[in-house]
Amino acid sequence: MDAEERRRGILESARRSGSVDVGKLAADLGVSKETVRRDLNRLQGHGLVRRTHGGAHAVESAGFETTLAFRTTMHVPEKSRIAAAAAELLGDAETVFVDEGYTPQLIAAALPRDRPLTVVTSSLATAGDLASAENITVLLLGGRVRGGTLATVAPWAVRMLSCFVIDLAYVGANGISREYGLTTPEPAVSEVKAQVMRAARRRVFSGVHTKFGAASFCRFADVAEFEAIVTDAGLPAAEAQRYSLLGPEVIRA
């Protein structure tokens, strides 16, 4: 196995399981840990993984994106805490956008049921969860449904959003970095998210710590456009402080 083939195998493992461990890779591949570290550094340099202590996480890109089903199995306790903290930022908002993805779906589930709310969403899963909720009116954006994420995209969704002024948007992303802002692999998804940013008075980003420092294909927002970033304690306090210097409050749930 040459170096290129080995790195391709490492990347496939990271994408299949979400993350890889240096020690396990070294044992499985029959090479030294230092060789694996060099491979991971090369993959990180190409924007395909993000290094962590002892391993790496796969970065979603133009050629790779996880499905909603996969996301429901990863970092679930952290996503639940993030969702609860994000829902507490609702304030006096009466119209809310909830993005596609599992963490936004958990945020929708945590929204109060004792007051009238109008929820706009591109997520079929979120719309289904809220459809029978008392006091909640659900508006599902039209458009093409993406099979992997069960979310609507394309000009119909963007056109509907252009007609709204939304009090608060809960926005997700595949990657967030101080250099490149918020990114997603799919141009059609990026268009929807960019229109949400234009339509919303307030914007909150929610996502697990593995998304930080990662950049995908399509950029749709700057960090400074958000009033708050809600993540988990896996994001180091020093790094959270660096993001807060760009404008948003950073909450580590």
Low-confidence stretches: none
What's the gyration radius in Å?
Answer: 19 Å
Distance between the termini: 43 Å
Helix content: 25-40%
Entry summary:
The protein is an alpha/beta fold and 253 residues long. It is 38% helix and 25% strand. The longest helix is centred in the first third of the chain and has 15 residues.
List the topology elements.
Layout lengths: L2 H15 L1 E3 H8 L3 H13 L3 E4 L2 E4 L9 H4 L4 H12 L7 E4 L3 H9 L6 E5 L2 H7 L5 E5 L3 E3 L4 E3 L1 H7 L4 E6 L3 E3 L3 E4 L2 H13 E7 L11 E4 L6 E4 L5 H8 L4 E4 L1
Parallel strand pairs: 4-5, 4-9, 5-6, 9-12, 12-14, 14-15
Antiparallel strand pairs: 1-3, 2-3, 7-8, 10-11, 11-13
Helix pairs in contact: 2-3, 5-6, 6-7, 8-9
Explain what this protein looks like in three dimensions.
Residues 3-58 form the HTH deoR-type domain. With 253 residues, the chain is an alpha/beta fold. Helices cover 38% and strands 25% of the residues. The chain has a 7-stranded parallel sheet with strand order 6-5-4-9-12-14-15, with helices on both faces. A 3-stranded antiparallel sheet has the order 1-3-2. A 3-stranded antiparallel sheet has the order 10-11-13, covered by helices on one side. It is elongated and about 60 Å long. The mean pLDDT is 95.
